[in-house]
Structures are given as structure tokens and as C-alpha cells.
Design brief:
Helices cover about 40% and strands about 20% of the residues. It is built from 15 helices and 16 strands. A hairpin with a 2-residue loop joins strand 2 and strand 3. Helix 6 packs across helix 7 and helix 10 packs parallel to helix 14. It is globular, with a radius of gyration of 20 Å. It binds the ligand CC#C[C@H]1NC(N)=Nc2cc3[nH]c(NC)nc3cc21.
């Protein structure tokens, strides 16, 4: 496989593990958080800033880049790494979820694939497992996702059972289509909503095929934190120990730590950059919205426990002013800080795994952050 996982250490008291992911564009320590760059950019951040903050793998989206500017154009540019001037690893999602989340119910799912209208211009589009693989090959991402059917969490059992069986057939078609192309890593996506036996069936089906790694799909779609943890409790441990485990769309600081405790290695979420744009900050003392009047005369640093560029060069009053004035520099400063916060939270988590005190770390972090 072009993408490999090396298990370095298991934490003594939990399912957490320290590892590294080896890809053609570099090797990265896990557990890790991956910034999301849906349209070939992590919003407001340059590649140099992403490297400075310690970002390893970033994400982009097959669906978005297919509809605009087109995967053929990106292939013409020499692939996504060259197009966006990013020489570290890139992971691409397969499009299934973007269709599900962007297009809502105006789509028609058949065995062949998904018919829907473009969210940009209403054009009729049709995506199949083979289309998704072809697009991701054109993008040249290091880690590709299988094209999965994306059910909501609270769907009836029979619906979810049919859905995971189709996801397995689509995964097989994707693997077949991918075999004929250069060797980028391809992950299978485990589904099954909150049904234990369907999660187990999906894991059995997908681990019988030779994927480079496994994603846990169907979560962070509106279910409770407790329900997510329950699914992770019985799903993650069934996945092979010698391959990466990626929890899609997660997330908030406590969810990241809880996922690591249950054996997850990789995470992604738009949260840090999305909330930054409206002034919400992830600080060691919990979330704060910088627009709040209490910060008007506050000339202290954003987060006294953070050593990032934003926290070592600017005050709360200044950033509050920028955000209220809708100055894009304010969005850049907060996006940088929020990404830095999650990337370095994972660095602290890796240290806690080395020290076998992840549960104590979780206790201290959540207490200071203000989680109940
Ligand atoms: C149902 C399903 C499913 C998963 N399938 C694929 N391909 N990508 C995902 C991306 C996600 N982002 C979030 N939350 C923000 N949950 C996700 C789940 C998936």
C-alpha cells in the first residue's frame, strides 16, 4: 500500500494508541486533527501558515472540486498538490456525504449511483463509485474515500441494513475501479448508524477487502455525543490494529479526546475555521465569542495558555474590533488560532498517551474548558 500505518504504543488504561501514517507526501504522527480545505484551500490560510501551525494532512472534497473548477482542470494543472501548492498529504472525501448534506432529499439513489442537481447551477449530475474514484485519481490525493451511501442516524433498521449492504457493493466497485489506477491509498467507510449488528456486518464486509485504512462514517450527523461514543465503543475495536482509523466530521475538543480514547487515529472538522468567521474562539478556558462587550477594553491576549501567532501578537480588543468591523484579517487571525488549538490539543493527547495518563489529561482539559 502507498499509505501505511505504524502502531508505536498503546496507552495503558484506554483504547488510545500512538502511531504514524506514512504517505508518499510525508509521514505524520497520530492521533491527529486534519484541517478541512473543501475547495482546495483551508479558508483564509496559506500553505505556509498551515505548515507553521503544524498541520499535516489536509482535506478536500471530490464533489465540490468536480462541480467547480472540474477534476479535469486540476489534472491538467498536475493534480491538487500542484494546483494549490501544498506538498504534504491530502485526503479527499468521496462525495457521498457532500451530496447528502448539500442536496438534501432532492436526489435519487439507485444501485448504479446517485442522481442529483448541482448546488451551484441546478445541472443534472450522476455520481457512481467509479466516477468518485476517477475524480479522486484526477485530484491525485494521497488518501481517497470509498463512495458510500450516507443514511441519517435515526433511519429504521431495514433502511440502514439495505444501505450498508449497498455501501459494501459500492466499496467493492470502487476498489475494482481503483486497481486499474496508480496506487493512492483507498479507505473503506464503515456505516450502520446506531445498530450494533449492522456496524459489525459493515466492518466484517469491508475488512474482508484490502483497504489501506478504515473510516467510521455515519457519525457527527446530529446524534448525541453519548450515542457517538456508544457506536465507537463497539465499532473501533473491531477494525484492524495495523491500519489507520478515521472518524469523519469530528470535531469538538471533547469529542476528539473521546474518539482517541476509543482507538481513533484521524479526525477532520470544519468547526475551527467555520466558527472563527463569526468570532467564536476555542480557548483553554472554553469557548468565547470575541464580539462580546466584555472584551471591548480587554488588551490581554486571546488565550493566555496559547503560544500561537495570534495569541502572541494581538489583543482581544483588537480582534474584537476587526470581527465587528467585518475585517477579513480578524477571520484570518481566529481561523489560525482555532486550527492551532486543535492541532496542538492532539499534540498534548499524543504526549498523554506516551505518559499513560490520557484519562487524567482528559479530566484536566475538560474541567478547565468548562465541559460538565
Ligand atoms: C452518513 C455518513 C457518512 C460519512 N461519509 C462520508 N463519505 N463522509 C462523511 C463526512 C462527514 N462529516 C460529518 N460531520 C460534519 N459526518 C460525516 C459522515 C461522513
Amino acid at each position: 500500500h502507498a499509505v501505511k500505518y505504524r502502531l508505536l504504543k498503546k496507552e495503558k488504561h484506554t483504547g488510545a494508541r500512538l502511531g504514524e501514517i506514512i504517505t508518499p507526501h510525508g509521514t505524520f504522527q497520530t492521533p491527529m486533527f486534519m484541517p478541512v480545505g473543501t475547495q482546495a484551500t483551508v479558508k483564509t490560510q496559506s500553505p505556509e501558515e498551515l505548515k507553521e501551525m503544524g498541520s499535516g494532512i489536509i482535506l478536500s472534497n471530490t464533489y465540490h472540486l468536480w462541480v467547480r473548477p472540474g477534476d479535469e482542470l486540476i489534472a491538467e494543472a498536475g493534480g491538487l498538490h500542484k494546483f494549490m501548492n501544498w506538498d504534504q498529504p491530502i485526503l479527499t472525501d468521496s462525495g457521498g456525504f457532500q451530496v447528502y448534506s448539500l442536496i438534501e432529499n432532492k436526489k435519487n439513489i439507485t444501485e448504479e449511483g446517485v442522481a442529483f442537481k448541482s448546488h451551484l447551477d441546478g445541472r443534472n449530475l450522476f455520481m457512481t463509485p467509479e466516477t468518485s474514484i476517477k475524480i479522486q485519481n484526477n485530484l491525485g490525493s494521497d488518501i481517497m474515500m470509498s463512495f458510500d451511501e450516507c443514511p441519517q442516524f435515526y433511519q429504521p433498521y431495514d433502511y440502514v441494513k439495505n444501505s450498508i449492504e449497498r455501501t459494501t457493493r459500492w466499496a467493492e466497485r470502487g476498489l475494482e475501479a481503483h486497481r486499474r489506477w496508480n496506487d493512492q491509498g483507498l479507505f473503506g467507510i464503515v456505516q450502520g448508524a446506531g445498530y450494533k449488528d449492522l456496524r459489525e456486518q459493515s466492518v466484517r464486509d469491508l475488512t474482508s477487502m484490502d483497504f489501506s485504512g478504515y473510516s467510521i462514517g455515519g457519525l457527527a450527523v446530529g446524534e448525541s455525543h453519548k450515542e457517538m461514543n456508544e457506536v465507537l465503543d463497539y465499532t473501533t475495536i473491531l477494525l484492524p490494529e495495523d491500519k489507520p482509523r478515521y472518524l469523519m466530521g469530528v470535531g469538538a475538543p471533547d469529542s476528539l479526546i473521546d474518539g482517541v480514547i476509543r482507538g481513533v487515529d484521524m479526525f477532520d472538522c470544519v468547526l475551527p475555521t467555520r466558527i472563527a468567521r463569526n468570532g467564536t474562539v476555542m480557548s483553554h478556558f472554553g469557548r468565547m465569542n470575541i464580539r462580546n462587550a466584555q472584551y471591548e477594553h480587554d488588551f490581554t491576549t486571546l488565550d493566555p495558555m496559547c503560544d500561537c501567532y495570534t495569541c502572541t501578537h494581538y489583543t482581544r480588543a483588537y480582534i474584537r474590533h476587526l470581527i465587528k468591523a467585518e475585517e477579513t484579517f480578524g477571520m484570518r487571525l481566529l481561523s489560525y488560532h482555532n486550527l492551532y488549538f486543535l492541532i496542538h490539543l492532539m499534540e498534548d493527547v499524543r504526549q498523554a498517551i506516551k505518559d499513560d495518563n490520557l484519562l487524567e489529561f482528559r479530566e484536566g482539559f475538560c474541567e478547565r474548558y468548562g465541559y460538565n
